[in-house]
Backbone:
């Protein structure tokens, strides 16, 4: 019964070929491949040259699978069996499996491509990570190098400003001071960006006086706005809590950035800082900040990218100043504080930055508040012996001038690490200021050498003047017997605040 | 009389075995990757400096991440191996030691040329970084794309086979 169907549907994919020991074709059955009687099989395709070696090994069976052959420009994929016989009749059986293997090829193609692509992605990712690490280290080192000269520049221009100068000279000094401040802020911004990218920027939540912080900010920007002939409006809702818990330094940074932009972009009209309460629940307060200016406004196309990094590099004069790094940091900080920010703007009418930020509520009351304030107020009496270990002459002079200007300190300066111990033993030292860049010595090792002296030196305050500003650097210092870290560049206020607390301790 | 020699190209998939052969035999190159299944065989006759003609029967084997998975019938009667890896993908040369040991143990008398392909994708610093892997084994850094050292590779192997 099957016979008629077989005749109709059966396809014979096999071709049987007999060749003699030289490879000459003796007989062929089914003409699937154009191999004819008297052809030399080796000449039909280079594959068959393998038969030259095999033909002599009689009564064996050689099987080859998935062989790509080509006859008259047409490709075939076949399985082959070769049976050399003793009687000069060597049998070659070829099975045409082109369709089957072509399907397999498609599967292999997809599989291999996806494996290779994923390997390339892994490599690209590794490469990018290496590049990123290099960049962040570069930024950190670069800013590290800049800290000493900027510190000197800030302090000496302050000192110069307090000396007897003509009005013109005072103006020049003001310009230098403003440039110094700008430079310092830019370095901090670049460092922040690198910290953000390497995941090292961590918020530090502490209880702080929110109203006081807002007032301070408002006073400063009112002064700056008025100086530019712009009005400054400060609106703060009455139900804003006085104390909250959060990162006050970063809140201030956000407001400074937004208000600086407002001042830079406004030439007439007004700037408004408006703070209101969104809600207060579950030990959290959510505050609404609006910073509005009547400045030049921002192009619609820039509004979408304004929080991206390096927007500032685009050559649009109208957004030339203040944006870019600063706003991308603002956006990051706000996101980290579970907040959000958006901007509305119209060219030549002005811009409005709106952000909502959450803080934890605090139980601080008035008396605790006073206590907190008292802690911050320091009263110094008498004279203190400062041992300064610093090999930068600029910084030596900077500190000497700063401390001398208060009339409260005797300063002994050394610039070599090995001179530290001889200058402590049997000498009265109330505080040690230690640079982290002393040649051949790490600040941690020097501190350890002091702590390892007798018991009386265990409590001598050691303050490191550091060009390393990462959180983990500071943590490392503090874990190694160092009381406090003052980050370069510092100004007079930073320096005095950084050491006063410890002077108080040592005279207790 | 022309002598025939069977040369087999082996290595991971996607390292450029087919491209090397196409560059050598047809002097062409395509960026498109087409997976080889089974084996393709091509032929090119060259004249070595001694004046002798050699017909190279070049077997282009499908890529394997492990040489032990290669079908043994493909290696019957081999006169020379070219082991190819992709310089830009470390996964293709990380097992170079064991892959070459396998050849040495199982085919001790058959010469092997080891080549790092896609030289156009890497630089000298990269080569230096991987020096400890490359230096002991690699005969040629080649590029099927630019053709660099491809001709030299095949003709040197052909000379070694005579």
Residues:
């Amino acid at each position: 019964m099957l016979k008629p169907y077989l005749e109709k549907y059966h396809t014979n994919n096999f071709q049987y070929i007999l060749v003699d020991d030289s490879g000459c074709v003796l007989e062929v059955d089914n003409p699937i491949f154009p191999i004819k009687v008297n052809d030399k099989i080796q000449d039909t395709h280079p594959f068959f040259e393998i038969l030259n070696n095999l033909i002599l090994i009689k009564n064996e069976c050689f099987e080859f699978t998935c062989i790509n052959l080509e006859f008259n420009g047409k490709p075939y994929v076949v399985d082959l069996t070769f049976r050399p016989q003793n009687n000069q009749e060597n049998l070659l059986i070829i099975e045409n499996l082109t369709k089957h293997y072509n399907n397999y090829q498609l599967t292999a193609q997809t599989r291999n491509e996806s494996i290779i692509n994923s390997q390339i992605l892994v490599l690209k990712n590794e490469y990018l990570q290496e590049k990123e690490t290099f960049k962040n280290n570069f930024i950190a080192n670069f800013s590290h190098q800049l800290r000493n000269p900027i510190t000197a520049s800030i302090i000496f221009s302050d000192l110069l400003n307090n000396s007897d100068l003509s009005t013109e000279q005072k103006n020049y000094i003001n310009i230098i001071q403003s440039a110094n401040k700008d430079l310092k802020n830019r370095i901090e911004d670049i460092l922040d960006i690198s910290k953000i990218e390497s995941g090292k920027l961590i918020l530090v939540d502490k209880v702080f006086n929110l109203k006081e912080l807002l007032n301070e900010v408002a006073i400063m920007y009112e002064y700056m706005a008025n100086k530019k002939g712009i009005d400054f409006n400060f609106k703060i809702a009455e139900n804003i809590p006085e104390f909250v818990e959060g990162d006050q330094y970063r809140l201030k940074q956000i407001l400074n950035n937004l208000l600086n932009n407002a001042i830079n972009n406004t030439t007439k009209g007004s700037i408004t800082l408006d703070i209101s309460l969104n809600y207060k629940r579950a030990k959290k307060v959510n505050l609404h900040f609006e910073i509005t200016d009547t400045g030049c406004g921002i192009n619609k196309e820039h509004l979408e990218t304004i929080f991206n990094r390096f927007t500032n590099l685009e050559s649009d004069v109208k957004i030339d100043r203040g944006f870019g790094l600063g706003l991308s940091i603002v956006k990051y900080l706000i996101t980290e504080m579970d907040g959000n920010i958006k901007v509305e703007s119209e060219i030549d009418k002005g811009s409005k930055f709106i952000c909502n930020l959450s803080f934890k509520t605090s139980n601080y009351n008035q008396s605790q508040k006073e206590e907190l304030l008292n802690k911050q107020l320091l009263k110094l009496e008498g004279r203190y012996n400062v041992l300064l270990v610093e090999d930068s002459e600029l910084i030596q002079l900077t500190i000497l001038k700063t401390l001398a200007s208060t009339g409260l300190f005797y300063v002994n300066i050394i610039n070599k690490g090995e001179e530290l111990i001889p200058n402590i033993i049997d000498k009265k030292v109330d505080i040690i200021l230690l640079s982290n860049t002393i040649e051949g010595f790490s600040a941690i090792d020097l501190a350890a050498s002091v702590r390892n002296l007798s018991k009386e030196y265990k409590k001598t305050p050691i303050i490191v003047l550091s060009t390393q500003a990462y959180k983990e650097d500071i943590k490392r210092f503090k874990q190694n017997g160092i009381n406090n870290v003052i980050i370069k560049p510092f100004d007079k206020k930073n320096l005095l605040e950084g050491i006063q607390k410890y002077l108080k301790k040592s005279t207790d | 009389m022309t002598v025939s020699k069977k040369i087999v190209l082996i290595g991971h998939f996607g390292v450029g075995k087919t491209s090397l052969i196409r560059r050598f035999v047809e002097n062409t190159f395509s960026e498109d990757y087409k997976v080889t299944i089974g084996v393709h065989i091509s032929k090119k006759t060259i004249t070595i400096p001694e004046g002798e003609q050699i017909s190279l029967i070049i077997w282009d084997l499908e890529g394997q991440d492990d040489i032990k998975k290669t079908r043994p019938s493909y290696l019957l009667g081999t006169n020379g191996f070219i082991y190819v890896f992709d310089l830009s993908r470390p996964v293709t040369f990380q097992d170079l030691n064991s892959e070459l040991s396998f050849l040495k143990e199982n085919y001790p008398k058959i010469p092997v040329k080891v080549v790092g392909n896609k030289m156009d994708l890497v630089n000298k610093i990269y080569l230096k970084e991987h020096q400890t892997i490359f230096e002991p084994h690699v005969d040629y850094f080649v590029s099927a794309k630019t053709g660099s050292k491809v001709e030299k590779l095949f003709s040197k192997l052909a000379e070694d086979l005579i």
